[in-house]
Specification:
single chain; mainly alpha; 2 helices; 87% helix; elongated
């Protein structure tokens, strides 16, 4: 009796699944379309943000490039004028 009940329940679930499959398919297609739309919008927003950051970096280049050059030169001269480090003996 248990085997018959199991087979009957599987058959009922299969019939319900077949009857509901168009609804599930339409829901999946709508979900994929929404995800694709949000993906396109998200990528375009990221691209726009990257363009703004690039434009800002280019506009401020006359300020930050000399500052970086001065900081780099100071760092280089500090290392050159400092005490020499003793050689590291590898074992």
């Amino acid at each position: 009796m248990k085997t018959f009940l199991k087979i009957f329940l599987v058959a009922v679930l299969l019939i319900v699944a077949i009857k509901l499959s168009p609804v599930v398919f339409v829901a999946a297609v709508i979900g994929l379309a929404v995800a694709a739309l949000l993906g396109v919008l998200g990528l375009s927003l990221i691209a726009a943000l990257l363009a703004v950051v690039l434009a800002l970096a280019a506009a401020l280049a006359p300020i930050w490039i000399p500052v970086l050059a001065i900081i780099g030169a100071i760092s280089l001269f500090k290392k050159l004028n400092g005490r020499p480090q003793p050689p590291v003996i590898a074992a």
